[in-house]
Amino acid sequence: MGKSVNKTGATVDEAIEAALSELGCTKEQVTIEVVEEGTEGGFLGLGRKDAEVKVTVNSDEAAASAEAADDTYYGDDESFEGDAVSEAEDAAANFVAEVLSGIGIHGNMDSYREDDTIYISVTGSDCGAAIGRHGETLEAISYMTNLIANKHSEQRVHVYLDVGGYRKHREQVIKGLADKAVSRVRRSGRKVVMEAMSPAERRIVHSYLQDVNGVTTHSEGVEPNRCVVVTPEEKK
Fold it and tell me: Does the pTM of the predicted model rise above 0.70?
């Protein structure tokens, strides 16, 4: 018998495909042992367990082919990064599911990724406990979810977590406040201090206004009362 690898996946078939891809073999060239069938889990995926398989190359000839494929696989950064982000997405989604289930949130969770960003959205009728006052609880969960995701990824990933549509709505509110601040600056020619915001919300303002002509932004104050200041841009 030749080289063996253990792989996990949402299903047995996914785990097998991952193993075959790494070994560079077909099913006819390997022996497949199912280590764990995997389970779907309950509400929000809580308790979900990945399937695991052990795949062993049958012959020396196939083993040599697998070793050659090994060199190609590990030299392929894009393939490696894709797998890393997928693992990070699973870890992040599972963590969010556990946290929300623990505080009694009932709803539906969807997750997907685009490049190095993992989007997790939770919808339901009783999500307030996961949002908190001014979104403080949501920010705390988001922070921990980002830590969990990056522990499972070789590349830097960012998790965008929204619960009950709060973050999307809040972003629109913040952009509206930023627009009003810009209008006041242009009318008065003086700086405008916006309301205190979290670091994530301040980043929204800085990013939203960075290409707006005639104004610049910076932050002042000490947490939790740190604010964005919109200032008239000095004329050259």
Answer: no
The pair of structure tokens assigned to 31 is 């022996």
What's the half-sphere exposure (Cβ side, CA atoms, 13 Å) at 100?
Answer: 34
At residue 220, does pLDDT exceed 50? yes
**Taking the alpha carbons of 105, 150, 148, 84 in that order, is the dihedral positive or negative?**
positive
| Contact status, residue 206 vs residue 228, Cβ threshold 8 Å | yes
pLDDT tens sequence across 16-52: 887 777 777 788 888 888 887 776 554 444 455 667 8
Both tokens assigned to 61: 């000839």
Three-state SS at 70: helix
Look at the domain 4-75 and name its fold.
Alpha-Beta Plaits (3.30.70)
Each domain of the chain, given as residue ranges in start order, spans 4-75, 78-164, 169-232
CATH architecture of 78-164: 2-Layer Sandwich (3.30)
| Pairing relationship of beta strands 117-123 and 158-163 according to DSSP bridges | parallel
